[in-house]
């Protein structure tokens, strides 16, 4: 990462592993079938990577430890991005 801005690619939703993660089917249901989170409507939801759920859990742990989850300061976003890789 360079500067104060976390890499956007690290903070983008990459989906779940269709073959090994039950979260894939739930994400598909709420995004494709229920029409929620339309920003992901055309996203390819299969990450083909069984480690994505672990990365999301690490990100969530950092997010939950933030003082104010609705207004994340730059350093909190940076920490969230850093735990992915």
Describe what is shown at a glance.
The protein has 85 residues and is mainly alpha-helical.
Query: Would you report the number of β strands?
Result: 0
Number of helices: 3
Radius of gyration: 14 Å
Proportion of β residues? under 5%
| Coarse shape | globular
Estimated structural class: mainly alpha
Helix content: 25-40%
Which sheet architecture does the biggest sheet show?
A: none
Mean pLDDT: 82
Low-pLDDT runs of 5+ residues are none
Distance between the termini: 11 Å
Query: How do the SSEs run, as a string of H and E?
Result: HHH
Please give a structural write-up.
There is one protein chain. By secondary structure, the chain is mainly alpha-helical. 39% of the residues lie in helices and 0% in strands. The mean pLDDT is 82.
